Automatic annotation (TrEMBL):
Top-level division of the source organism's lineage: Bacteria
Protein name per UniProt: NADPH-dependent FMN reductase
Organism the protein comes from: Mycolicibacterium rhodesiae (strain NBB3)
Domain NADPH-dependent FMN reductase-like: 12-155
Taxonomy of the source species: Bacteria, Bacillati, Actinomycetota, Actinomycetes, Mycobacteriales
Gene3D superfamilies per UniProt: 3.40.50.360
Amino acid sequence: MTDSTQPPLTAIALVCSLKPSPAPSSSELMAEHVCEQLRAAGVKTETLRCVDHSISPGVEADMGDGDEWPQIREKVLNSNILVLATPVWLGNPSSVTQRVLERLDAELSNTDDADRPIMIGKVAVVAVVGNEDGAHKVIADCFQGLNDIGFTIPAQGSTYWNGEAMQSKDYNDLDEVPEAIASATAAAARNAAHLANALRNGQYPPYS
């Protein structure tokens, strides 16, 4: 539960679908389901589909002319919670997800006044959709990168849906979300909001 005497917590959902808007996206739908639960916990949310923006390859905060990552980076810096939503492709996170993580790698060398990585104190959750096995592996890959960058991962901080192997049904084709997935989504959001509030009121100790 968030502290009503403080400004609301904020979350940015980065959707790493390969499909540009306005094409339907299961990853975006899953991200919205996480955001619905975050809003129920008093968190203000915003969703951004990364492929709609020009994110240059590289590992710097700003790669120069035409790079739209700096504006996205500001949204991450101004949020308490990052929701990273990705499809599974060939058993891995999407190439867009990998690019987002590579750009976030720049933050390892950016520190606050206490010499902590600048993303310290922010919470990250991962949402995965796909029509093949591999969700646990994709979540593990994303968690490892996000944690290295400085994000804190809440207990049960992920949710996923995998369709039947060799079939074409997507998450956004479901008539209703299965109870087990809805429960996992709610737990991830609830735990993320709790952890973000705790970190806002008790930051990690200084590094120097």
